[in-house]
Amino acid sequence: MDLKQKEDSRKERIQKLKRGFAYNIFYRQGVTQKTASLNDYYLAVAHTLRDRMQHLFVNSVQALLEKDSKIVCYLSAEFLTGPHLHNNLVNLGLYEEFEQATRETGLNLKELIDLEEEPGLGNGGLGRLAACYLDSLASQQIPAIGYGIRYEYGMFDQEIADGWQKELSDCWLHPGNPWEIKKADMACDVGFGGHTEIYHGEHGNRRTRWIPARVITGVPYDTPIPGYKVNNVNVLRLWSAEAPTSFDFADFNTGDYYGAVKDKIMAETITKVLYPNDEQFQGKKLRLEQQFFFVSCSLQDMIRIHLHSNESLDDLYDDFAAQLNDTHPSVAVPELMRLLMDVHLYEWDKAWEITKKTLCYTNHTLLPEAMEKWQIELFEDLLPRHLEIIYEINNRFLDEVRIKFPGDADRLSRMSIIDESGPRYVRMANLACIGSKAINGVAAMHTDLLRRHTLADWNTMYPGKIRNVTNGVTPRRWIAVSNPRLTKLICDAIGEQWITRLDKLRDLEKLADDTSFRDAWYKVKKENKQDVANLILKKEHLQIDPEAMFDVQVKRIHEYKRQHLNVLHIITLYNRIKANPAIDVPPRLFVFGGKAAPGYFMAKRMIKLITSVAQIINNDPDIHGRIKIFFIPNYNVKIGHIVYPMTDLSEQISQAGMEASGTGNMKFSMNGALTIGTLDGANVEIREEVGAENFFLFGLNVDEVMSLQASGYSPMDYYNSNDELKQVIDLIASGHFSGGDQELFRPLVDSLLHEDKYTLFADYKDYINCQERVGQTYQDRDCWTRMSILNTARMGKFSSDRSIMDYSRKIWDVKAFPVELKWERLPKD
Ligand code: Z2T
Description:
The protein folds into 2 domains: 11-365 and 435-448, Rossmann fold (3-Layer(aba) Sandwich); 547-798, Rossmann fold, CATH 3.40.50. The two termini are 20 Å apart. Strands 1, 2, 5, 6, 9, 10, 11, 12, 16 and 17 form a 10-stranded mixed sheet that branches. Strand 19, helix 23 (601-618) and strand 20 form a beta-alpha-beta unit. 49% of the residues are buried. 49% of the residues lie in helices and 14% in strands. By secondary structure, it is α/β, with parallel strands linked by helices. Bound molecules: ligand Z2T. Ligand Z2T binds next to helix 6.
């Protein structure tokens, strides 16, 4: 094709897009171009794009059914995908053409992109990780299905009212979801409650059947996940609960119409709303129902797909690797056993072999309060057959332990699936460890702690079973989509290979000393900051200097993440300026964002503390605007798109040993922010990669934290021996930030003074000193910019493409499977 032909076919494609918009406005939205709302236009454009990828999707599915390559099934109670339109345009290489076609239609593509309501079907890191992995699986052409729950209401929307968090329901489906397709013919039935029966099957075998008390239908909704500039399109399959279609007959016949309706509503509550607790286990029955519901649907679906091209389930594990995203889907162990034995009539040993070779388990936390353990009574009431199977798994397993470690009663009670130390519980982590072929942690340090502490018994029992796969994030969404200025600068300098081969960013290293490149780099950051400063001025009437250092901490609000340590630093600066108005404090904007679990008392107070300190400091004329504090309401994926590109300093200040990995830390650093952080989670590896000289390290390491706590940590000693710390705490306690109210922050102050579980006081001094070095470095613009370039250049390891490669080799044993286009677009347009 010569240039002219190329130009002609491009023109033709743009015309087709415009016709697509017009078609969808009229036939799908049922309005005219004149009466169409902006949302009508968003839906029309989104549908036009979805139609453009449909033939890729059909080809991908067809290719899978024909050849039997292994499929990765990622089972997760959460998928925090974020908005799809912009990402899909970038992955399909259609952004420019859509930009032009919308412009020529009199629309603004950016405005439409901003209109999309994000599917907030996750709490934070764990759900967002699942979404990054879906992007990388598709981009690396690995066949995969994401299985999860189609919550009607996702993560709550956060408002700040009078400085407090207020929760509002997230109505993400109300404007209409153009990305999903309901697959009514693939519905699965799921039982709950009831009892089990023994019967004699073929050959007089004793068999068990489960007679559930009620049945609920799971209906899948499919969202296509296109890879970056490849033909492969994977699928995110989310299950929605409905009453079985025949549910009402009995009730109708007896005339109990309202009774029937009540049953229907009961059925639908299962997928009504996401539980908004990130790392706090709540033993609620509805939550276990959600978990079992989506796991059973997903396993039934896998079995159906397998039997499509296989006679038996004997080699299910050759066709599927099912990854359990934490223990939330770990009821998959007894459910797969039940399906194999009770439904497909396998004997125990073969069923157990298939189960163990199919399932793999990822652990995401060391926090004891996050560990899932269900009261036996609750479990038995809901899943009587599964409890029987669990008892049998446990008996056989404990025999194995007895043989390997004779006479070790403590070990038996620690490793048993059943916690019998008091009221009895089913421990889901133990179940997942026993029932899977591999266990993995999410960063080197986390995996090391799993091996040495949390899962030490398992490591002794099955050496080599616990593996490490360090988390990663997708450079498509977290650079190419969210930071177009930086993307252009990097592409102009080193080409665009880095988008799928992130280690290629190393080519930027040589430009770190090039003054014109440094200026361009600085300019990108400055423009990103200016955009946000304009936004904050417009929305919050807060004046911000784009030259100020943007110092940012966005993540769930949690004591272990220590947002209040950040606050102690801010108040320290405030006190220093008040005591000595001439002091040289480089201007900083402190940004916080994050949601608190609605029932987490301390976390909600931490939000109130941040907003109250902001109120006082932002309005104190003595400060002369040198420090400003801003709490961004409703931090989510969409706001993340704005936050990472604007940041100079990334706060990763959790107590060492508490953050399993962290993934925000990676997004910041990729976008050229420098990190101030502890040796925790993936910070350790980030520092290794970018170089210690390009990372602001402070605080105790995990061994020091443990020995300090073992020797009896006394926060009061730090308070008494550090004047600045004492002043800060006393100022909060005095009511200075709470209009004289000395009660408001007492719970926070008291918990720090008398317990300080996360050792803020022990790290305070080092943190303050480190922040002072940060401030000095920032004043040397050249030096800072150079460090910033080197951070981005050395982040290759933290692409989720690398993580997926690790999983593929270390755990799943899957290979890329490029899709060739055989099925043409229909109708030919
Ligand atoms: C979560 O986001 C994480 C762990 C959980 O443990 C639960 C949730 Cl909702 C049950 C986070 C970790 O805190 C974070 O360190 C990690 O980077 C992320 O999972 C992904 O692995």
